[in-house]
Specification:
The protein is an alpha+beta fold. Helices cover 21% and strands 43% of the residues. It has helices at 13-16, 26-35, 72-79, 116-125; strands at 20-23, 39-45, 48-54, 57-59, 62-67, 85-94, 101-112, 136-151.
Amino acid sequence: MTAPPEAAPFSGAAAAGPRRTVELTGTQALSLLGGASLGRIVFTQRALPAIRPVNHLLDHGQIVILTHQDSDLFAQARDHGDRGVVVAYQADDIDPLTHLGWSVVATGYCRPVADPDALSRYRRLLRPWPGPVMNCAVRIRPHLVTGIRLVA
């Protein structure tokens, strides 16, 4: 019987020294979010949390994502009318080798985009990943924006 191979030595943040977190202001966090190429929308699906990776844009402090009319997210946002549905949106940029970077979470109300001109503009600006035709959009108005920066 041969012995199992030895595990590779741990590398990364521990080898480079301790890390600490620095709290970001809401303005700093939204600025970083606006420059990110993708994030994750967190919503409720059949009474359980659901998370989907999506691309987004920041428009006057609101997070906009494209979706399709048959999506659970769009149905919930539409069904809750003017109130919208509570969601969270998370994006980050953390280096896999140094473990340095940032992470931002925005929580707020998600509503469908009803204005056809705005929808047309968002469809020109956002390039969704392959899948169903993204003929709808939702806007998230953040009420709570938190973020951290991971520093050495």
